[in-house]
């Protein structure tokens, strides 16, 4: 059986657009659940999503626990051996409090990739396959979140290119979630059930195409 770790933020956690972090789509609706359904027997999918998670930043308001880099290493060790790690982060790095351009958000993704390679939590101590997924771009209207994500909308459209450049340079897989899904108008930066379905199906095809030995 092959094991996949899905490491992300609220759009991996399955937060319902316009709701709170406690308002989630069901296990089978969330994209990791869709991925599990599509891949079928022989695959174990681990869902590890946290609302507000960043790539490498302690959040000065929500706390250090939101730092995706801090938690990644123990998470990898807890679930090893892993055949594939899928990372879908970046949206929360665009909050005004971090003042990050898209290129520096991509550097944060690069740090996570380096950490995975250094730890080598794959079978027999190997480096697992790694896939970076850029989140769908935010909508122009993000409702009451406008001040928190001030000027983030344009940056969110730049993430896919910057993530792809980083992925190519570090020789890992890349997928643009915006190619198959969009954010929901209810809040402008979370994906709805149909987008989870589309993303899970598309990622299953990407996983199958890796060319497993």
From TrEMBL:
Claim: rRNA-binding is one of the keywords in the record: no
Keyword line: Hydrolase
Domain SGNH hydrolase-type esterase: 6-197
Record carries keyword RNA-binding: no
SUPFAM superfamilies listed in its UniProt record: SGNH hydrolase
InterPro entries in the cross-refs: SGNH_hydro, SGNH_hydro_sf
GO molecular function: hydrolase activity, acting on ester bonds
Gene3D superfamilies assigned: SGNH hydrolase
Name of the protein in question: GDSL-like Lipase/Acylhydrolase
Organism: Roseibium aggregatum
């Amino acid at each position: 059986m092959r094991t996949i770790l899905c490491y992300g933020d609220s759009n991996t956690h399955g937060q319902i657009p316009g709701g709170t972090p406690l308002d989630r789509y069901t296990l089978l609706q969330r994209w990791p659940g869709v991925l599990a359904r599509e891949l079928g027997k022989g695959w174990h999918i681990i869902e590890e999503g946290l609302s507000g998670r960043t790539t490498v930043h302690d959040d000065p308001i929500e706390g250090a626990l939101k730092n995706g880099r801090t938690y990644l290493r123990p998470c990898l060790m807890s679930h090893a051996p892993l055949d594939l790690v899928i990372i879908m982060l970046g949206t929360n790095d665009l909050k005004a409090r971090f003042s990050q351009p898209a290129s520096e958000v991509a550097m944060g993704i690069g740090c996570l990739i380096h950490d995975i390679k250094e730890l080598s939590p794959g079978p027999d101590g190997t480096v697992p396959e790694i896939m970076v997924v850029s989140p769908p771009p935010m909508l122009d209207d993000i409702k009451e979140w406008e001040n928190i994500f001030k000027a983030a909308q344009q940056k969110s459209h730049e993430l896919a290119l910057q993530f792809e450049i980083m992925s190519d340079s570090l020789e890992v897989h890349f997928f643009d979630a915006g190619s198959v899904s969009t954010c929901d108008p209810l809040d402008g930066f979370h994906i709805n059930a149909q987008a989870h379905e589309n993303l899970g199906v598309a990622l299953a095809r990407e996983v199958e195409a890796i060319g497993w030995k």
